[in-house]
Protein 1
Amino acid sequence: MLLLSAALFAGVVAVSATGFGRAVPDPAYAFLQEQPYAAGEPVTWRPCEPIRYEVNPAHASGSDDEAVARVQDAVAEVAEASGFRFRYVGTTARRPADADQLAPGPAPPVLVAWARADEVEDLAGEVAGIGGSVSREQDRWSWYVTGRVVLDADAVDDADDERATLLHELGHVLGLDHVDSRRELMHAQSAGQEDFGPGDLEGLARLGKGTQACS
Ligand SMILES: [Zn+2]
């Protein structure tokens, strides 16, 4: 059982985009960003390439190997729900602030890290984690090319809570926004929901389908 917690999830998209949320009632899902030249189409990852990710286990509970394994388990669930392939590239010393600016050239892997509010301001208050991705536009189509998940090392204190937070933030990384329904894990507030709900799963599958062939 996930203990009821007052922790809030916060989604952060590290790009300057106009806010976009399309709530679809029952089952509920919403996308963080819409394609600028294709109304209704979500911004997400290229379905034909694996989403590379790395883990900085500093501040996580347990050993580094255990922290990495917990992330890999959560990623496997998101991969299955979405159809996206992920590739773990190893541990890193990269910190969340290093992921704020996207330099020209190849984008770095998605960073999964633990931090405290004195390092990552967005974790202040009752925030359990943040997650989001950065897009690049090519040929009038936007793709996410990197992203980050940061778990609050102080607020996430048991394994079930951590797992639910990881799944939620990875949902943001793929392109899901918050929804009002408390049946969904993409609800903004942790309310005892442990697993993806029906809308979450439909939204993830929709994101993973992709509507543009990769070139
Ligand atoms: Zn959130």
Protein 2
Amino acid sequence: MHHFLAMTLAGEIPRRPTGEAGALRWIWHEQGILELQPRQPTRRALVISCAIHGNETAPVEIVDALLQQLLDGKLALSWRLLVIIGNPQALARNQRYLQRDLNRLFSGRWQQLPASDETVRAAQLERAISHFYHDDDEERWHLDLHTAIRGSHHLRFGVLPARHTPWDELFLRWLGDAGLEALVFHQAPGGTYTHYTSEQFAAQACTLELGKALPFGENDLRQFARTALALAALLAGDAAPEATAAPTRYRVVQQLTRHSESFVLYVPQDALNFTAYPKGTLLAEDRGERYVVQGEQAWILFPNPAVAVGLRAGLVLERLD
Ligand SMILES: [Zn+2]
């Protein structure tokens, strides 16, 4: 088969879009969207996406290596698998996005905006999912692999979309075995890819934050070794090596939104993700509205005062245990 990553970065798809590689059938649907089918029938459908943010390259390197192993017959496949390189144009330029943050555009949001590279891609990515998750009786998982902009008290962590039905504890346990030190549960809907697959297709879906974003070739892949190992085991249908400690669980209690130009975030620019603040701390202020820590303690995630007006400048968490 042609080299998936290289051709995707070059903006190409092969002239013959299907073929066989050992015990697998591959179908190249669109730029950066590749389906693999094992020969033996399976009731499990897995989506692995990466580079939804174009500057988050480490997950692309992990996925590319796993894909090579699958196609070379060195790794067995026990799922129907859809591999997605989210934003190839942004990835080729090592930019988070070109016009708009792709991971804010799903579930009815891209339709409200003027057409851009990212609105077109969000529509394609939604279509690819509906096409792939066509069988209601299949078990559905979606792992969206990212790296974070800043350092973190939990090096690797997962963010899970708001959901009406309970999470599969096996899924949550696998996330721990994949090296995630914390799980953050959203309480409100969002425009992320994992919110879309969870809400529309009841997929067990998680956004995995796997360390800090660095350019291609500069990633310290040892930091990601445990996750890569767990992914290989998952694909083959084997158990991953068990985590020594279960991830700490948090839920989002408040979103800090930059409503106006006068928004001020009091969390320092270089604060790590999961920095704790005691009760009463003033976290942000916007036109007289004050965001103050209500519970005994709160943890801050993704603080970013530089976002556009109307967007999220941070999340406030409380611990669940
Ligand atoms: Zn990201």
Protein 3
Amino acid sequence: MKCLNCGAEINNNLKISEIFSLKEIIPNYICNLCRQQLAPLKNRHNCPRCFKPDSEGICSDCLIWEQKYGKTNCHQALFEYNQFIHSYFKLYKRYGDVLLAKLFYQDIKSWSLKNHFDVVTYVPASQSHFEKRGFDPVYELYADIFDLKKLLFKIDADKPQAQKNRLERMQTPQTFSALPEINNFQKNQRILILDDIYTTGRTLMYAHDIFLSYGFKNICTFSLSR
Ligand SMILES: [Zn+2]
Ligand SMILES: [Zn+2]
């Protein structure tokens, strides 16, 4: 198997016990050299609410959200946003290399096996972005791993979040509405909303808000990067 990022041969170094165990072996699409450029968030004194790394307790972003909404978020992420993640998303989203959707398959799959939810949904691309790119990047990132339900609709925004500064991001108005399928689920079911990157939390807060307004109470969010 070749690394989807750099093309180097991947040596998975399976132990004999792993080969003969009945446990599912999760495919790996990233080589060790590329992996070394990642900054995992595991065991790093993350903010307990949003996984911001190296926070002593609840971070200032989360305190602002609490003041504004009187509610707390429940977010997890796998990797700190760094140069490698930045370049990855540039290739994947801006240049539209859809094959890169699987680069983190092993990491996301492992997380999914340890964290259980009743309903898994995602932050969808707007129609104009979908048409421009030809695929929905968040959907493709997770579609092979979770049984994804499309429950949100994204209204076309003036400009993409990535082109906004921090203040503009925080002040973006609600950009989601619910699809009728949201009524197919019980209000006590555990909901997981997936996104690719958590920056200020603005996007996921709005997605979260839609579910709250429909009476759901048990809502968590997840992103590849924070
Ligand atoms: Zn590589
Ligand atoms: Zn936080």
